[in-house]
Write a structure and sequence with these properties.
The chain is of the alpha/beta class. It has twelve helices and ten strands.
Length: 265
């Protein structure tokens, strides 16, 4: 018997589209409900209590849509609120940090790993803690990049402003001679090309969405929750302006996505 209830994804905005892409590729028979909290983006500068409250509202919304499993398609929420929300709700949840940390440790050769992330994720220390639990010998270099999320959400990825910001944020990693960089925010893969140009192709770039979705697939199968939809349904919701969400999603995604619906949470 298949469990055709949808999988839930949420992010502060459009960055979770990079996770949605992985879910569609690895779980092609699963329906998906996506929530982008664009009315409250960015999450990186928010306090812990705010992030927990926003996450709580979103999980309640997703459960109201009948989701069977939730992927935190947001590193900030994965770092700060997932532990609290797991205690509040019975739905299985997975975050990006631990799978991303395992991928980074597997990729590094010189044991020098960079973490590019939001202010809240860096402040939480979630990635250094997760990496140290796997390999205490790894040296970790963290860099907050507060301008990058607004650049994505404003549709300004390929601009001189973005290139200048990336140059400043990545300079410490070049000095530290890292050989592996964790993209510690789901918005950051949209800058993958410029990042490779600045750091060079010898630096392994880790997108935690890949390992997280693979782990989610294993857990869904182990729980006997896999879907069997021949034509899975994709629903998109946003707390902000749906027209702006749809316009930017059309620029950022290679897929033709259904129009987002505005909801209050």
């Amino acid at each position: 018997m298949n469990d055709n209830r949808p999988v839930g994804l949420f992010d502060s905005g459009l960055g979770g589209l990079t996770v949605f892409e992985q879910v569609v590729n690895m779980l092609p028979r699963e329906s998906v409900v996506y929530f982008g909290d664009t009315a409250n983006v960015p999450y990186g500068g928010r306090e812990v209590n705010e992030l927990v409250e926003l996450g709580d509202r979103i999980i309640r919304f997703l459960m109201g849509k009948g989701v069977k499993y939730v992927l935190f398609a947001c590193n900030t929420s994965s770092s700060v609120s997932i532990g609290i929300l797991r205690e509040r709700y019975p739905v299985p949840m997975i975050g990006l940090v631990r799978p991303g940390a395992r991928s980074a440790v597997a990729a590094t050769r010189n044991k020098r790993i960079g973490i590019l992330a939001t202010e809240a994720t860096v402040k939480s220390g979630s990635y250094p803690e997760a990496i140290a639990s796997i390999d205490p010998a790894v040296q970790i270099f963290s860099q907050a990049a507060p301008l990058l999320v607004p650049l994505v959400e404003g549709g300004r990825v390929e601009t001189p402003e973005a290139k200048k910001a990336l140059g400043a944020y990545l300079a410490p990693f070049r000095e530290a001679q890292i050989d592996t960089l964790v993209l510690g925010c789901t918005h950051y893969p949209f800058f993958a090309g410029p990042i490779l140009q600045i750091l060079g192709e010898k630096v392994a770039m880790v997108d935690p969405a890949v390992a997280t979705t693979a782990e989610a697939r294993r857990e869904i199968m182990q729980r006997g929750m896999q879907g069997g939809e021949s034509q899975p349904r994709y629903e998109f919701y946003t707390s902000g302006d749906p027209e702006e969400f749809n316009r930017l999603a059309g620029l950022l995604s290679t897929r033709r996505l259904p129009g987002a619906i505005k909801v209050e949470i």
